[in-house]
Design goal:
The complex is a heterodimer of chains A (373) and B (658).
Chain A: E1 2-8, H1 13-20, H2 38-47, E2 63-68, E3 71-77, E4 82-83, H3 94-104, E5 109-113, H4 117-126, H5 134-148, E6 153-156, H6 168-178, E7 183-191, E8 194-204, E9 207-212, H7 230-240, E10 244-251, H8 252-259, H9 265-271, E11 276-277, H10 282-288, H11 292-310, H12 312-318, H13 320-329, H14 341-354, H15 359-363
Parallel strand pairs in A: 1-9, 2-5, 7-10
Antiparallel strand pairs in A: 2-3, 3-4, 5-6, 7-8, 8-9, 10-11
Helix pairs in contact in A: 4-5, 6-13, 11-12
Chain B: E1 8-10, E2 15-17, E3 25-29, H1 40-49, E4 54-58, H2 61-64, E5 65-67, E6 70-71, H3 86-95, E7 99-103, H4 119-122, E8 138-139, E9 146-147, H5 154-171, E10 181-185, H6 205-217, H7 235-265, E11 272-278, H8 288-291, E12 297-301, H9 309-322, E13 327-332, H10 344-356, E14 361-365, H11 386-400, E15 417-421, H12 423-432, H13 440-445, H14 450-453, H15 466-484, E16 488-492, H16 497-500, E17 505-510, H17 516-527, E18 531-536, H18 562-572, E19 580-582, E20 587-593, E21 599-606, E22 612-617, E23 623-625, E24 631-632, E25 637-639, E26 644-649
Parallel strand pairs in B: 3-4, 3-14, 4-7, 7-10, 10-11, 11-12, 13-14, 15-16, 15-17, 17-18
Antiparallel strand pairs in B: 1-2, 5-6, 8-9, 19-22, 20-21, 21-26, 22-25, 23-24, 23-26
Helix pairs in contact in B: 5-7, 6-7, 7-12, 9-10, 12-15, 15-18
Classes of the chains: A alpha/beta (373), B alpha/beta (658).
Amino acid sequence: MVDPRLRMERLNPVHWARLLDLMLPPPGGDPDPSQAKGALAALLARTGGAHASTTGLSPEMPAIVLHRQGTVLRILRLGGGTMGGGAISGPLTQESLRAFRHQHQLPFVAAVELDQLPRLWADVQSAVKPGEDFVAQQLSMLRVFREALGKGVLVDPRLLGSVPIPQASLLQMTFDRMLPDRRSLVFYLLDGGTIFTSLIVAKHHGDVYLVTTHDAIADQVSGLSSVQNARQVLRAVSERIAPPHIGIFLPLRVWHETVAGDQSAIARAAVSRRAVLDPAPAWLLAIVGAGAVAEVATRTGRLAGQLLSASKLGAQLFGSKRTEKLVQTLSNPLEALGLDPWETLRWSRDWRRRVELDRSKVVSPTRGDADGS
Amino acid sequence: MMSPSDTVSIGSHGLRLGTDPDLPLLAGAMHYFRIEKRHWGRCLDAVVDLGLPLVETYVPWSIHERGVGRFDFGDGPVVDGFERDLGGFLDACAARNLKVILRPGPHINAELTHFGYPERIIVDPKCQARGSQGNPVVLPVPPRAFPVPSYASEAFHHEAAVWLKAFADFVAPRCWPAGPVVAVQVDNELSLFFRTGAYDQDYHPDAVVLYQAFLSRRGTDPAQEPPRRFDAADAGDLVRHLDWVAFKEWLVVWALDRMARVLRMCGLDRVVLFHNFPAQRWGAPCSLPGAEQVLDLAGLDIYLGRRDYQAVKAHALSLVGSSRLPFVPELGCGGWPWWFAFDRADQRAVMLNVLMHGVRGFNLYMVVERDRWYGSPVATDGQRRRDHFAEIGQLVAAIKGSTEEPGLMELERPVSVGLMRVRDYERLALCTALTDPLPPAALDLLGVTLADVSPDEPPEGLSCPVARDYALALAEASAALDGLQVPYHYLDSDVSADRLSHYELLLVPTFEFMDEALMDRLRTYVSQGGRLLTWPETPRLDGRLQPLSEAMVFPGVGTGPLATVLPEVLAERDLLPAATVDPADSVDLTVWSDAQREAQIVFVANRGARPCRATIRGLPCSLRDALGGEPVDINHISLDAFQVRMLRRSPDGGRFHG
């Protein structure tokens, strides 16, 4: 999935920073989905509801609890400082950890059993095969870490525990279905007639080999004032990089609405020509399409996908040819992984926001550190 | 036979080429191997136009090796997109009178797959570092996680030597004065790949052998196996753990020395050899003075943002206090895609911050953009990013000065106070860190400090939690000095007695044990007239945790609370600053003066997250912004959050003394 010779070039620092922060709410907070107006909005609201925003996360930093056999020794705050071990009453359990998190309104907390940490650390590293694909390597490490959940490691909320970790081969098949070889993905967000951020990804031999931005075609297409001019971009990408298989051109506000949980935002924007999805494979249309039809299809596909992802036996039982066939027939390739795309988006957003470090808090003095800060 | 006239050495203001005036150690990074050859000229012209006299580049082993023992420095075809014509690149530099810094590794990182090692090296079990459980030590970096090599491994050093010899054979004829190469870096960020937890690594069999030889030299039973977790049961056991951490520091220096010898033996004995450690606030595996025992120079790489003001300041003060020439071999200019996104304001603030606090040289990494890097002022085809390019050029010009105005490197900032970081206590902190084996570098990035991970209970063999109290003592001292606006440097406890004598006052945190060699140096310092302030305890044990003999008179002067004693001592020695700035709790001031002790450049920095207005007192003069040129009212200096401003004395202003 990641070419070892991966090129990442022509990355504009401002736009790249924005891309990295796309899961974070905009300065004024997430758009209020109830602001959607009109008959179409009412129709869509009946057929595909918006999820409540979870931007009400605590401004406090995540915490790490260090303990030995349930006796809390130290509670570290990412960003600096500690909380006394007595902040958790009684022996450490999943319940007491959750209660601690709620009491102190922490976005995330992990508890690590120090006597098991060296073994866990070693096991995570031993799971890595040097020649293997990067994503496969990360999945291997994640699997080891997830097996430790409930034993050497407790986390709350249990974001990781509820997400299936697919086999790399299944992930590859899904990826190949979503973005075939020798094709590209083009993603632009516009704001006020200018490019807010962009991403162009090209794939071949199963791997992403190029990650770049609009700067790569700037000599042919300088800027993009409207999504209606998307074709110029697509033509330039096709000539210079690889024919696009996916083209997503959105206003920034529509992106924020989508990330906030409004499953209909993109569809509404496309209908009203504020957004362009071109080209748009069927699965993409299925994901962004609102309504019951999409809901039924995804539910069916998700069940099959969960069977595939739940264990190593899953893929073996189905056999690689059958698996491949199943993946090909699913309306939404992500279902093969047992993932609902909207749940995945919400999960990604929640994780991103929970572990966001406010670096000004890193600087602020707490107990004091060796720099005198 | 070498003569001074054809060697490069370290001067007080830069690199000394023979007997010429010092060449300012101001460099910009460009990777020839990633830039199409047809663009080299344009890119190098841009480096020249930025005012940088030096260009720096890695020379990757993995790219130049065509097969085992076979290297291509430009003869072979370009089949994989990488240029290899190192000679052609050096010629292009020489044609522009650019001097060159080369960094051949063997470790180079540079966001290359496998960090520049040939794949056959990293998959060879004989070369791989080992964790405490016998596992490979894996760096989970894109685009491929890989097991890192052991710098104790004989197999690894043999392979590395073949590469370094080939490199040196090619480069030696191109060294100054015959060519443009003036400095070569030995390896890269040799900090055990940021994995400096006491018991994280390295348990390679060759490391164990070296460890046992190390113990033997210390007069300790060499048959001991290295500890794999902290489990000291008594004082003697605690010494065993401290020895393990000390051994790893020694291992880093030994490895650097070994590789440096290869380079020197193969003709690179006329240029400066140096190394770069990654800057981290705690848990660093080696001292700058330690590395400078075997190399000409050691520096710190800094990749931080403006919000990391305090950390950047501390790193700069450590460099100034502990190295021969405070140099930042990699000063972030742009960044790699899977790192924090720093912008131009961050770059500017960090550059001014390090200069403000005494750094004398830097390499802007990267000045010319390349694959897996963004945010440089020059694009891969040599195009200049107008505003960014102008800004960097302006900064460099301000640093270098002109015929009418002295450059920053010609000025001095008198600093009479040293605050010592005691290696023994830092080793203890590393051993006892609750978070071991998690890397201190990663924890440091997440804002977790030494005090945060030090136990509250004393380890067996000691009667107080030295590691925790040491971290608090350092913080207390630096806060007190900052509050009084007294300039100081951080001194590594490995620095020589001669280096200590440069300071009128030394602040040394002391606890119940202290290395005798350090005590000797402090004794010498006091006998030469230095004022030594120690707190909070008087050592009663030596570095082996044995009772001090009665003959060992500790030279320190016991003291009451530092906050009370320090102002008195500073006043007594006339070390309180003449020039100060308000508000003192959030703004820093440094004053740089010429040989006549007339202040020429002033830096003012907002340490905090809120904009403020600063007032400078004790400097009756007029100032202007060194970059923009606009006049500045010293009673109302506007500062954005974390902003650092560089101000110059106005030509028409009064004179003032720093």
